[in-house]
Amino acid sequence: MRTRRAILEAAALVFEEQGYDTAKLSDIVNIANVTKGALYFHFESKEGLAQAVIDAQNEAQPQMLPQQYKAQEFVDIGMVFSHQLRHDALMRASTRLTLDHAGRGLDRVTPYQTWIELHVPLLEEAQRRGELLPNVDPFVPARLIVGAYAGLNTMSYTLGLDMDVQVSELYTHVMPSVVVPAVAIRLDTAPGRGARALYGPRGTHECRHGCAGGVLPQGEA
Q1: CA-to-CA separations, 25 to 4, 33, 42, 89, 153, in angstroms, rounded
Q2: CB–CB of 123/75 below 8 Å?
Q3: CB-CB contact of 92 with 106 (8 Å)
């Protein structure tokens, strides 16, 4: 499993930097420090390896802290993923491959469907609790958020924008149209929310990327 993980992480670095078409398996095995035989033992082809990178974004959802409002947990899904994109090359490569049009045999449908299906139950529970505005269909904002998030990811990558700030603005502007005012004013949609949802009010975590709540790993301070 360690060899497979090393190959995935190396593939993430190459796919993130070069995209699918120009990525070379020789670069991946060199970075992973494995043989091509080891790569083909775990992945039957370049396409199979790319699919495994895509699938990684839905395989290991981090454990978020429970919140008073289900609407906050809805927001936290996207804010936590934004936090992951800052810290995890595998997540960045996964989203790039999902949004890329190269590699026609890759399954890019499942990631969208999985994200939507992750969001909908939270809004359904929020609706039962009276957190949503009347006549809001939980499926609609779930689908809109997932679609808008994908667009923001592409734009942020292209223009060099801070994805966390863009996602924060998305939720800040959208949520008042989804939830009742008494809930809207209590939602934390500010940048850095992903770290706070994972690590507590201060969002303190080991970080080399300049996050507000980040601290350098022990020995690097």
Answers
A1: 14, 12, 13, 17, 26
A2: no
A3: no
- pTM for this prediction: 0.89
Contact 194, 84 (CB under 8 A): yes
54-63, 104-113, 121-130, 164-173: range with lowest mean pLDDT: 54-63
Lookup: tokens for 78: 């996207």
The model's pLDDT over 14-23, given as tens digits with 9 standing for 90+, comes to: 999 999 999 9
Contacts of 175 (CB under 8 A, 6+ apart): 71, 75, 184, 187, 189
* Of 99, 102, 107, 65, the residue nearest 194 (C-alpha): 65
**Residue corresponding to tokens 């992945």:** 43
One-letter amino acid of 79: M
- Residue 215 banded pLDDT, cuts 50, 70, 90: low
Q: How far apart are CA 70 and CA 128, in angstroms?
A: 10
